[in-house]
Amino acid sequence: MVKFTKQFEGQLVPEWKEAFVDYWQLKKDIKKIRRDSTSSVSKPRQNGSLTNTLVSSMHKLPFFGNHCRDREFIHVHSKLGSTRSEGVLYETELLEQFDHTEAASAFFALLDLQLNKVNEFYRKKEKEFLDRGECLEKQLHILVELKTALKDQNKIIANSSHHDSKDEDSISGIISCDEESSRGMTDQDLQEEENLAEDLENYGVQFKDIPRSEELGKERPNMEGEQSFSHCISNCNEKKLKIRIPLTNPTRTFSYLLWEDLINQSSKKQNGHGRKVHINKTKLHHAEKMIRGALIELYKGLGYLKTYRNLNMLAFAKILKKFDKVTNKQVLPIYLKVVETSYFNSSNKITKLADEIEEIFMKQFTEDDRRKAMKYLKPTQREVSHVVTFFIGLFTGCFIAFFVGYVMMAHTTGTYGPQTNTIYMETVYPLLSMFSLLFLHFFLYGCNIFMWRKTRINYSFIFELSPTRELKYRDVFLICTMSMTVVVGVLFVHLSLMEKGYSYSQVELIPGVLLLAFLVLLLCPINIIYKSSRYRLLSVIRNIILSPLYKVVMLDFFMADQLCSQVPMLRDLEYVGCYYITGSYKTQDYRYCVHTKNYRDLAYAVSFLPYYWRAMQCARRWLDEGETGHLINLGKYVSAMLAAGAKVAYEKEKSVGWLCVVVVISSIATVYQLYWDFVKDWGLLQMNSKNPWLRNELILRKKFLYFFSMGLNVVLRLAWLQSVLHYKFGGIDYRLTGLFLAALEVIRRGQWNFYRLENEHLNNAGKFRAVKMVPLPFHEVDEQD
Question: In 3D, which of 259, 278, 270, 218 has the Cα closest to residue 242?
Fold first, then answer.
């Protein structure tokens, strides 16, 4: 049977952990009472101990026991708090002396504190969700009215013989108080305008041009500075509604710029008499998606609040039962009655709101299909199959067998020894190196997922992953073992064929076909081998490549950081691609992609690209959020690009001057990066922390792990010294040395990932942020005439 402590810790909302009952401290207080009781029993009994023993024994008899249960050992007083958010505060008074009154008083003082804390947090979150629900109700009302008006407008256009096809699927309105503006209009045009006004009469709106940049909505003050599609809908009550669709991708950005230009041209043609603006079906569709996403997040938050209520109620019952068992007093019925009538357990507002959301979602988004609605509102996680575990073991065994065979054959033929096969090392080895680094990184990501789940770090929420489609750590391990089995198996066959006397021209296509097969599988549109995850990866890579144009989210810049540690893998990919695309494999002319100027420059550009992409993401975040810290972070990646450029120049010149430049710039960049790793990304080295040189909140219990990780990060950050010192490890080929150093950087990134998400999770927990705040499309703004 699972202990309640583990059940409690496993089911609580991680970001709200500090707001839950401190069950662990209450257990410590009870253990203290038990220890004191044990020590008092072991002491010599004083005068009157026989009487006390007789009285306590009589209380255990049925007749006296009932009388004991009817007695009240405590009385819980309630009083109004000083602020409205506190509500009713509870304070317990001990009516009878306990064996250890001080310890019991401390226990009930802490218990009262926890009950008041739970009530206050529940009241605060309930108000937040109720306000959000009210706002979403207004948003949905506006959306329904606009969709109805759009439908009616399409009927008018369909019945009209004089209309432009460009006006279909849009609502249009004329703003004008000048009576002369209606002159020259035909009766049919006037009738269409009257019909449109009648359609919108209940809503009382007119459509204006795009608002000025200083006009801000009330609903999302935290999104100031974010660019968006904007339209204004104003009514006769001097209120104005602004439609904002965030510019999260290039299509919306360019559409917004084109739309603004068309509006300006239209306003010039009409000479200020009125402006005609369309709210088309596409923009309403975007608004509908935003509102639907906001409803789903709100429903998730209500579910978390229900869990919060139930777990806390259970925790109070469990801890009071333990107290009764230790003290032989019946306080459970008395205090639990107070808990049951307290605000967090008696309020049913969130239950009503959740039922309303279900009904609204069914009606508006799933055509009264409850099962479909609940798939959106309560997505079920994929069950872990034991078949996955079986295949992980199977492919691990196959990989080890192929790898041992490959190493033995390579050793026998001297492939990696002092007398290396140059053609093999220049043409096939880069492919093995590329796949090794890629799937080592993927394997470490699986280890990260395992540790995040074990330490209750909510990585799914941070990365905004779908619970029905996200990869579990077993899935990641299966992909790694299966892929490396295929890679090593194919290379084993390739090396075996070469040993049997097949010429290079006969077997040279095998590595290229292997790479092509992986690329085809990555792009395969058929729903096989984790299609949703593959396409999500492709979309993230697209966002990174076009990073200045896409709004940057956590998963995007996290992935871009991974690419910064995979520069050797990217250079191998560029070289292998050049080797096969240019047809060099036909003549085994591996020098062509190394010595040709254009391809050599491309290889250098590949070294810069990850840092450039990451710098552009910092620039975009600075434009969106306006925080100076993003500019400072941008400087870190600029310093990394300068260090990479200095190394490239040193490789060309091999002069003492360039060596000094490399050492100076690389040292500055390393110090810059280490500071950002420890202070910003990991949140460590806080001087005033209760944990010296760390931070106040730590997820790992053993503090030395943080210091060890910082030391390891420093050592692995200095791996660039090998590019300057050119130290040779015996007779090992320099390519193997390069692979080893590249693998060390991947390992450094793997441990960096854990602490980076730990810090992000603690930031969310510090703000009690457990659900995503989805931006809303319609914003009400006061307009002063």
Answer: 218
Q: Which tokens belong to 406?
A: 């490959």
Task: Please provide residue 207's backbone torsions phi and psi, each rounded to the nearest 5 degrees.
Answer: -110, 130
Among 649, 775, 781, which residue's Cα sits nearest to residue 723? 649
Domain count, the chain: 3
In tens, the pLDDT along 69-116 reads 456 778 888 888 777 767 789 998 887 766 677 888 899 999 999 999
- In three-state secondary structure terms, 357 is helix
Counting beta carbons within 10 angstroms of the beta carbon of residue 476, is it exposed (0 to 12), middle (13 to 18) or buried (19 or more)?
buried
| 209 alpha carbon, distance to own chain's centre | 36
Q: Are 534 and 680 part of one and the same domain?
A: yes
pLDDT at 260: 55
Domain ranges, residue 222: 132-292
Cα 564 from Cα 633, distance rounded (Å): 14
Question: How far is 202 from 145, CA to CA, in rounded Å?
Answer: 9
DSSP designation for 181: G
Residues in the chain: 785
507 and 432 within one domain: yes
Q: Containing H/E element for 277?
A: strand 276-280
CB 607 within 8 A of CB 640: no
Secondary structure element (H or E) that encloses residue 107, with its range: helix 101-159
Place of tokens 């975009």: 620
- The reported pLDDT for the residue numbered 537 is 96
Determine, yes or no, domain membership for 783: no
Say if residue 397 is in the same domain as residue 543: yes
351 Cβ partners below 8 Å, 6+ apart? 306
Count of other CB atoms within 10 angstroms of residue 441:
22
Q: Do 479 and 407 belong together in one domain?
A: yes
Amino acid type, 590 = Y
Identify the segments of the chain with pLDDT beneath 70.
Answer: 1-2, 38-71, 85, 97-99, 160-241, 247, 251-279, 417-420, 723-731, 781-785
Could you give the CA distance from residue 552 to residue 758 in angstroms, rounded to a whole number?
A: 20
What pLDDT score does 214 carry? Answer: 37
Residue 335 pLDDT: 93
Q: Convert 216-263 into a string of H (helix), E (strand) and C (coil).
A: CCCCCHHHCCCCEEEEEEECCCCEEEEEEEECCCHHHHHHHHHHHHHH
Distance CA 403, CA 381 (A): 36
238 and 157 belong to one structural domain = yes
In a domain, 373, yes or no: no
Q: Say if 740 falls within a structural domain.
A: yes
In a domain, 726, yes or no: yes
Helix or strand run (H / E) with residue 341 = helix 332-341
Residue 404's H or E segment, with its range, is helix 386-413
Residues 670 and 706 in one domain: yes
Residues 214 and 331 in one domain: no
User: What distance, in Å, lies between the first and last C-alpha atoms of the chain?
Assistant: 69
Q: Which three-class secondary structure state does DSSP give residue 91?
A: strand
User: What is the C-alpha separation between 537 and 349, in angstroms, rounded?
Assistant: 40
Please answer whether residues 632 and 571 qualify as being in contact, where contact means their C-beta atoms are separated by less than 8 angstroms: no
Coil/strand/helix, residue 644: helix
Q: How far is CA 778 from CA 218, 582, 785, in A?
A: 10, 54, 21
Q: Which residues of 366-381 are buried (b: 16+ CB within 10 A; e: fewer)?
A: beeeeeebbeebeeee
Q: Give the C-alpha separation, 228 to 207, whole Å.
A: 17
pLDDT at 599: 84
Distance CA 225, CA 88 (A): 40
pLDDT reported for residue 659: 87
Residues 518 and 568 in one domain: yes
Q: What angle do CA 406, 411, 415 make, to 5 degrees?
A: 90
3-state secondary structure 494-559: HHHHHHCCCCHHHHCHHHHHHHHHHHHHHHCCCCCCCHHHHHHHHHHHHHHHCCCCCCCCHHHHHH
Rounded distance between C-alpha atoms, residue 151 and residue 284, angstroms: 12
